[in-house]
Design a protein that fits this description.
It contains 17 helices and 20 strands. With about 500 residues, the protein is of the alpha/beta class. Strands 7-6-15-16-17-14-18 form a seven-stranded mixed β-sheet. The chain has a six-stranded mixed β-sheet with strand order 9-2-1-13-20-19, covered by helices on one side. The longest helix is centred in the first third of the chain and has 26 residues. The two termini are about 25 Å apart.
Length: about 500
């Protein structure tokens, strides 16, 4: 502890020079979070977005009365959203209606059993005792205590602050994390508390969000399970895209200038200082500081024209095959979010990550957003968001040829898992493969960005500053992947410009 007391701690870097006018490239959730905070701090903010709507990865497809979300479907930690609105003096509830999702997930297993996942710990313990037994319920309650401690020890020192040096991690909370086993492997740590393979899967599958197998991920990533399965899951009325729409509208009310349908071709810079962005139409927009929301490797290579060796060494998360289906068929046994586990578990990660091949016995996510908001589809119709994890584009898979075959395999798998007549019920469909993810600006076709291995986490993850006045935000930089993390990254990016608010603590962390 004495060593920690005297370890050098860095003061977070800030951009140099004037910061009166800031250009934010990209109206993704992180860019919007940054823009709202900058506007609240009195900066002139211009947001340049290539699409016609805000959202970035949280995109939208309107097709014949169906409103399809194209990105994340699981929304947690709503207080982080409320903080963004607070920054401009607005109440989130005046702009956005968030509906609790209950159960959080309905999980199905190959032996025919199913478990509903609840954020209410008493209700979840009762579910586990009913389906598995009292011992598993007691183990679950001990696991919740563990992940709550993880969250408490991690959030302020390791997630909710700009980190410039490994020395910044040397805090008393680091000792506490070591003491409770936070740096052991996730799967064995979960196994200490949960003995049934079904609950082990429910509370470790979130490692996939970090781009890792639960057998390789550190136990500190169980904090994702806390955010996901203990703190609760929500769904915005109007779909997930209602979130960026609301954030952009509130930002615009407070003076943020949005330039949609405008693509940035490059950032002009000289000797480490950026001076302007240039659009594909030849327009030049000068500013004092710049925040880049595109995927970090893409922002470096395509906008700044540099390619650091540190980025070349990055390894990336698995990707996914996404089928968005507008259907005339309703399935009464499913919930809003549904996870269908195959027989394999460790083998799934071995195939996806190590062998870089498609799953032979898939575990899949099926989200039915019309379960919570029927208005997203025409009367009597349903939307199904079907996600099959796949390798990223490092794999030797030609998606131009593979897509039709794999699409049919996805449908066959769904029908075998209980979605009878799924293929025949589809009226509208949109497919996204790793190839399309890449075309949308995601390096290696990986929507979950660089994997959160130890050497790609915290101070070892690509930093969020370049030169004197360029700041990155989004899942490719600190703190990492997921809606909560990118909202935090937007605030951290803004603080590189405004300076840190030493009195600030998100209501989510209180």
């Amino acid at each position: 502890m004495d060593l920690l007391r005297f370890a050098p701690r860095s003061t977070p870097r800030v951009v140099k020079g004037k910061t009166d006018h800031v250009v934010v490239v990209g109206a993704g959730l992180a860019g919007l979070s940054a823009a709202m905070r900058l506007a609240g701090a009195g900066r002139k903010v211009t947001v340049v977005e290539r699409e016609s709507v805000p959202g970035g990865r949280a995109g939208l497809i309107n097709d014949k009365g169906y409103s399809f979300d194209t990105g994340p479907t699981v929304l947690t930690m709503p207080d982080l959203i409320a903080d963004c609105f607070d920054a401009v003096g607005e109440d989130m509830n005046d702009w956005l209606e968030l509906m609790p999702v209950a159960p959080l997930y309905r999980t199905f297993f190959p032996d025919g059993s199913q478990l509903d996942v609840h954020s209410d710990t008493t209700k979840m313990a009762e579910e586990l005792e009913r389906v598995i037994g009292r011992g598993e319920a007691e183990g679950y309650l001990k696991y919740v205590d563990f992940v709550e401690k993880l969250y408490k020890y991690e959030i302020r020192d390791f997630i909710d602050r700009n980190i410039d040096s490994p020395f910044d991690l040397l805090t008393p909370n680091l000792v506490k994390l070591l003491g409770i086993g936070g740096f052991r492997k996730l799967a064995p740590k979960v196994d200490e508390y949960l003995k049934d393979p079904r609950t082990q899967r429910i509370y470790s599958f979130q490692a996939m969000y970090a781009g890792l197998s639960p057998y390789d991920a550190l136990a500190i990533y169980a904090v994702i399970a806390y955010m996901d399965s203990v703190a609760g899951v929500f769904f915005p009325k109007g779909g997930m895209h209602a979130l960026p729409r609301a954030m952009a509208a509130a930002a615009a009310k407070h003076g943020v200038d949005f330039r949609y349908n405008t693509t940035v071709s490059r950032v002009e810079h000289h000797q480490g200082r950026a001076t302007a962005i240039v659009t594909t139409d030849g327009e030049r927009i000068e500013a004092d500081s710049f925040i880049l929301n595109p995927d970090l490797p893409v922002a470096y290579r395509d906008l700044l024209g540099v390619n650091p060796i540190s980025l070349k060494r990055l390894t990336y998360s698995p990707s996914c095959f996404l089928l968005l289906a507008g259907s005339n068929q309703k399935y009464s046994k499913i919930a809003h979010h549904n996870i269908h586990f195959g027989h394999q578990w460790a083998g799934v990660f071995d195939e996806l990550i190590d062998q870089k091949r498609l799953m032979s016995d898939p575990s899949i996510l099926v989200t039915n957003p019309t379960h919570s908001d029927p208005a997203l589809a025409p009367d009597g119709k349903e939307i199904y968001y079907v996600l099959f994890p796949t390798p990223n584009l490092d794999a030797d898979i030609d998606w131009r040829k593979e897509t039709p075959r794999y699409r049919d395999e996805v449908v066959r798998t769904l029908e075998a898992r209980g979605y009878v007549g799924f293929g025949d019920s589809i009226e509208i469909e949109h497919i996204t493969t790793p190839l399309e993810w890449e075309q949308r600006g995601m390096e290696r076709g990986a929507p979950f960005a660089a994997a959160h291995s130890f050497l790609q986490t915290g101070p070892f993850r690509p930093g969020n500053m370049w030169g004197e006045n360029v700041v990155f935000t989004g899942s490719g930089t600190q703190p990492g992947v997921g809606v909560p993390m990118v909202l935090v990254s937007g605030r951290l990016a803004a603080e590189r410009i405004t300076g840190p608010d030493v009195n600030y603590h998100s209501r989510a962390w209180r």
